[in-house]
């Protein structure tokens, strides 16, 4: 299923377009750009969408393991990292998870809830792309790709977009070019460069929701555990740091390169270079119940731990605590305290992240202090808007990043006007 909007042949290059200006030009035909275009088009605006990729919506297509975790039922502003933590509240209130679910239902796209409010398509993620394109078609949106946008200029209240297919003028210019993850899929820092060109501050970008690399030295006896997935409680970041402190109960995956799985991806967004991560393999009540049960006195320490943890992990923890071959009843107070420390406050110092190739999102982006949350417009540059991942609003794992794309796009689309009237 691949509906494309009417193909508009490239016009010959010219310095200034003779055609009437568009009400809105959106650069980036991903989640935010396509959704914004559909909403604005259906409000009667003349909208042009430009993308440099041959195939659009690629991140939607690969998202959620191919099934697109398109929103989370429990979305609140607390599920986002931003230097301006209240910024997301307005857009999320105006268009929330229930609104997007209603749209998905209208298109009769079957979906299911997987884990803590995460909603996935039953079928391929392509159905969401198809829905967004249908919405654009209903709004008579013009979509052109692949088109290279060379630069952008501004004069007499109009924005000029210079491309390899000519120049187009518009009353409103919307940057929806996403973040830096997965460069092989056409990710670019275009929105950040445009922000800088027009003196709009940018929060330094960093890979987030990304696996962490760990040296074999700091993993000690854990290098043998590659492939193991265990539920943990994990903490990262500090309250007085840039994005504060995160605390998650999720699965951790030990890999041959280091640590991954939802627990690590979540923690990576809060983790700062050089910081030690803290995690608990068992909840305090679980560990105390095991320690205090008389029935287990004669078990080896490894055997005791293996009642609640995978055998290989139990053996590795025993080795770290130097309690191999020891019966629980023979383990003294100091050794028990050492083991409790390993189980409840295991720490590891990651060497770094696996970078943009493996990150799911970008932390940082256009500084929201410079944007109006009702319109996503730059306060100092009337008519210039930023939506989606290029903005310094980054969601936790679990459908929040798409919800931000929909919510920020909707806020922008609702406030655009024909002819740029303000
Ligand atoms: C592997 C993976 C899985 C993910 N899974 C999920 C998930 O299940 N749930 C979730 O909520 N989030 C998920 N995400 C994050 C989600 O995909 C993004 O947050 C979301 O796509 C951002 O939407 P956007 O419209 O801002 O950017 P994008 O969807 O990335 O769209 C940006 C568009 O801009 C175009 N573009 C870029 N530069 C230029 C340029 N210079 N000129 C013209 N066009 C340009 C690109 O080609 C692209 O089409 C995942 C991300 C990855 C990498």
Structure description:
The protein has 422 residues and is an alpha+beta fold. It has 2 domains: 248 residues, FAD/NAD(P)-binding domain (3-Layer(bba) Sandwich); 142 residues, Elongation Factor Tu (Ef-tu), domain 3, CATH 2.40.30.10. Helices cover 28% and strands 24% of the residues. It has 13 helices and 23 strands. Strands 1, 2, 7, 8, 9, 10 and 22 form a 7-stranded mixed beta sheet that branches. It has a 7-stranded antiparallel beta sheet with strand order 17-16-13-14-15-12-18. A 3-stranded antiparallel beta sheet has the order 3-6-5. Helix 1 runs parallel beside helix 5 and helix 1 runs parallel beside helix 13. The longest helix has 16 residues. The chain is elongated and about 85 Å long. About 3% of the residues have low confidence. Bound molecules: flavin-adenine dinucleotide. The site of flavin-adenine dinucleotide has 36 residues, from helix 1, helix 2 and helix 13.
Key terms:
Elongation Factor Tu (Ef-tu), domain 3, FAD/NAD(P)-binding domain, 13 helices, 23 strands, seven-stranded mixed sheet, binds flavin-adenine dinucleotide, 2 domains, 422 residues, alpha+beta
Task: Provide a compact summary of the structure.
By secondary structure, the chain is α+β, with helices and mostly antiparallel strands. It has helices at 31-42, 58-62, 89-94, 97-106, 126-138, 190-197, 216-219, 261-270, 284-292, 301-305, 311-320, 333-344, 400-415, and strands at residues 22-27, 47-50, 69-72, 80-81, 111-113, 118-121, 142-144, 149-155, 158-163, 166-175, 202-208, 212-213, 229-236, 246-254, 258-260, 277-280, 346-348, 352-353, 361-366, 371-372, 377-378, 384-386, 394-395. Helix 1 (31-42) packs parallel to helix 5 and helix 1 runs parallel beside helix 13.
């Amino acid at each position: 299923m691949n509906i494309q909007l009417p193909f508009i042949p490239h016009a010959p290059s010219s310095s200034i377009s003779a055609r009437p200006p568009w009400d809105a030009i959106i650069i980036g035909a991903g989640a935010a750009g396509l959704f914004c275009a559909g909403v604005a088009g259906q409000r009667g605006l003349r909208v042009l969408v430009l993308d440099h990729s041959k195939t659009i919506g690629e991140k939607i297509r690969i998202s959620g393991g191919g099934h697109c975790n398109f929103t989370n039922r429990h979305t609140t502003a607390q599920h986002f990292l931003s230097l301006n933590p209240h910024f997301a509240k307005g857009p999320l209130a105006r268009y929330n998870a229930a609104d997007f679910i209603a749209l998905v239902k209208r298109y009769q796209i079957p979906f299911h809830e997987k884990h803590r409010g995460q909603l996935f398509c039953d079928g391929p993620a392509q159905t969401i792309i198809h829905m967004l394109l249908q919405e654009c078609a209903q709004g008579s949106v013009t979509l052109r790709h692949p088109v290279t946008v060379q630069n952008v200029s501004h004069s007499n209240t109009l924005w000029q977009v210079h491309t390899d297919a000519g120049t187009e003028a518009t009353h409103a210019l919307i940057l929806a070019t996403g973040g830096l993850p997965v460069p092989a899929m056409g990710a670019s820092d275009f929105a950040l460069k445009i922000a800088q060109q027009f003196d709009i501050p940018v929060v330094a970008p960093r890979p987030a929701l990304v696996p962490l690399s760990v040296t074999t030295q700091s993993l000690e006896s854990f290098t043998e555990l590659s492939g193991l997935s265990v539920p943990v409680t994990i903490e990262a970041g500090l309250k007085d740091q840039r994005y504060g402190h995160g605390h998650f109960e999720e699965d951790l995956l030990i890999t041959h390169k280091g640590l991954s799985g939802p627990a690590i991806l979540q923690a990576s967004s809060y983790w700062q270079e050089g910081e030690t991560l803290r995690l608990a393999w068992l909840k305090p009540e679980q560990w105390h119940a095991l320690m205090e049960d008389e029935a287990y006195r004669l078990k080896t320490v490894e055997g005791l731990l293996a009642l609640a943890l995978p055998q290989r992990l139990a053996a590795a923890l025993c080795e770290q605590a130097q309690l191999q071959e020891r019966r629980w009843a023979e383990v003294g107070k100091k050794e028990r305290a050492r083991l409790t420390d390993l189980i409840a406050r295991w720490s590891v110092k990651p060497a770094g992240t696996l970078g943009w190739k493996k990150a799911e999102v970008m932390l940082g982006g256009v500084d929201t202090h410079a944007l109006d949350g009702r319109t996503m417009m730059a306060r100092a540059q009337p008519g210039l808007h930023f939506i989606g991942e290029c903005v310094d609003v980054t969601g936790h794992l679990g459908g929040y990043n798409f919800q931000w794309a929909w919510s920020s796009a909707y806020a922008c689309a609702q406030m655009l006007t024909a002819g740029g009237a303000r």
